[in-house]
C-alpha cells in the first residue's frame, strides 16, 4: 500500500500556493525540501547565465520524517528554510527536483 503525503493549500499574503502531493516519506530526522529558484539577474539588472548561477540555499519543506526518540522534528511542511550550500542529496521525482537532508543540516526557518 502506497503512503501519500497530502499537503493542504498554503495561504500567503495575496495568493494561494498549491503544494503538490509527493509519495515519498522521509525516515527518522530526514526532511524533503524543494529548492527555491536560482537568481537569474543581479540587483543592477545584469542577466546571469545558467552556468554561472549559484545553487540556492533556501527552499520550502515538502515533507518531514517523524524524528528520533531523542530529537523530535521542529520543522513542518510549508516552512521556508535556509540550509548549507552542500547540504542534502539531490533527488528527482516526477520531473521535479528536491533535496533530502537531515534536519540538522537546516540552519534556520524563515518567518
Which structural class do you get from the secondary structure elements? mainly beta
State the share of residues found in helices, binned by percent.
under 10%
Low-confidence stretches: 1-19
**Count of individual beta strands:** 8
**Helix-strand topology string:** EEEEEEEE
**CATH fold topology of one domain:** 10 Kd Chaperonin, Protein Cpn10, Chain O
Task: Give a short account of the largest sheet.
Answer: 6 strands, antiparallel
Strand content: 25-35%
Number of continuous helical runs: 0
Please report the distance between the alpha carbons of the first and last residues: 36 Å
Strand order across the largest sheet: 6-7-3-4-5-8
Question: Which radius of gyration do the C-alpha atoms yield?
Answer: 15 Å
**In one word, what is the shape?**
elongated
* CATH level-four homologous superfamily name of one domain: GroES chaperonin
CATH class of one domain: Mainly Beta
Architecture overview:
The chain is mainly β and 111 residues long. It has a domain at 26-37 and 55-110: 10 Kd Chaperonin, Protein Cpn10, Chain O. It has no helices and eight strands. It has strands at 10-11, 16-17, 30-35, 58-64, 80-83, 89-93, 96-102, 106-110. Strands 6-7-3-4-5-8 form a six-stranded antiparallel β-sheet, with no helix packed on it. A hairpin with a 4-residue loop joins strand 1 (10-11) and strand 2 (16-17). The protein is elongated. The N and C termini lie far apart (36 Å).
